[in-house]
Give the backbone structure.
Amino acid sequence: MTETSRLTLDLDALASNHAVLKAAAANASHGGAEIAPAVKADAYGLGADLVAGRLWDEGARGFYVARLSEGLVLRQALGDRAATIYLLDGVTPGSAPAIEAAGLTPVLNSLPQIEAWNSHARGRTLDAALHIDTGMNRLGLRPEEAVVLTGAMDRLKFLNITLVISHLACASEPDHPLNARQLARFTEAAALFPNARRSLANSGGIFLGADYRFDQCRPGISLYGGGPRDVADDRIKAVATLEAPILQARVVPRGESIGYGAAFTARDTTRVAILAVGYADGVPRAAHPRGAVWFDGARRQMLGRVSMDLIAVDITDCDAARPGAMMQIIGPDLPVDDAAAAAGTTAYELLTRIAPRARRVIKGG
């Protein structure tokens, strides 16, 4: 009997999601946009080496990471495959030599970063992407700074700006007015760099319409099983299936409580399964009281607070629930968006929280 949680990664489902996103981007007004997957945070916790390798086989040639350390690991994992790896953090102090040595393309987010990369490139020409902030107010040049930059092109003397990007703040909400404002700002700012390709859409942005797709789309969550609207989507398959075994089945009498803080009290005699999974495995403590698992054809309610290593589940009238049986925490029957919503979080956070102690199984590798 297994005594640990199990994370199954379905690389065929990943490929299917890539195909769905690629098809959605293919009807862009100018003939179709490149799909450049976001594989930052170790491909949302699922393994950037496995994910990028399979997506390369599916035709992806550009990938996005956040940290320099992620870019170095990905470059090594991809070996001699000539992928373009974009570094979203840009050029941080002292990082320029390592960025160049690994053949990474920095996404320049500020005038000081532009100066640092241009200074490092002096006498040569180095590729870079340019990030323009159109309303997120995180990283990126403000549009007025981009205008100033075009009036002082010596700052880009040794740089080849291959791509201009921005990032949508509300792409999962199609009717949010910020989407249209960001599109207008990006269109105007990107026109300052007519020789560069353009990229705006994330997973949700791909489905906002052809105007948002430009030359390149950068999906993340919908590659990994999350819907582009932060709810389950029938077009998107589950890539990650997290399961845990029943350690013990027990009967809790009416009036007795379960778990820390006595947060749940049985109203009737209740049969309970204790599973070998908890917040140390990535199940949010906040899953109480709305969280559920999937077993034997139905959702089964979590009872009481999530512990570090254990959760309790209602198995009243479920004869199949015996020690050793595996219950699904997220997966094809319990979409990651649903599980995340029950815990008051997002699919992004839920996937990246899955801990290394979950035994990993690869399908379609």
